[in-house]
Design a protein that fits this description.
The chain is mainly α. Helices cover 67% and strands 0% of the residues. The chain has helices spanning 7-11, 18-28, 31-34, 44-63, 71-80, 88-100, 105-115, 120-135, 142-155, 159-168, 177-180, 189-202, 205-211, 219-240. The longest helix has 22 residues, at 219-240. The chain is elongated and about 60 Å long.
Amino acid sequence: MSIWGSLLGGVIGFSFGGPFGALLGSFLGGKISRLSSTKTLGKQQNSQEIFALSLIVLSAKLSKADGQVSKEELVAVKDKLQIPDSEIDQVAKIFNKAKDESTGYEPYAKQIGEIFRGNINVLEEVINILFYIAESDGHVSNEEESMIANIAYIFGLTQKQYESIKESRKSSDKLNPYIVLESQPTDDIQTIRKKYIKLSKEHHPDLLISKGVPMEVINESKNKMRAINAAWDQVQKLKNN
């Protein structure tokens, strides 16, 4: 079953407060407050539902960051999140509600950061996918990049982690391998290799799925892994010359 088909029903069992609670409450009324919290984020399916909801809301906020919502960005949201036609109406309601409400993106980013505290690789994947959405119209505006950078900061990502994600979006022949591997050109090969192994483990698709990244969006993490491997190949060539 698609993660989107159970999206709203899958999260009403949580005791949500904050902006997500208000957003869900606008769709589900008193159901949230009347239901006990019978679910925990320790369950993979539950984590995936929260991750999916987070992407929809932040994508909606990002889509109007530069003052205009482009058709390409809307198509990218549907395609990137692999939302089937049968579920697009439900997802669109959430997207449009988040886009049109007055609440900014910051409270949502803070709540997402708290929900996935300790799973920094999952939060990195949110940033990775937001870049994909922003790139969909052929240009990442200054406003969009500023918003993504601030979300990364709210999540608790370091500057090196953020820059690594951003650099990994480039083609393998244009990326700076040291930035991707969160290293410096002056670091010795052993130090960089340790960082490469660490990043490879953290961004392995199987690990991300176990942490709550839905199958529908896992391709972007595979692209991140390809960038990590390409960067390591380049570093080895540079260090051995």
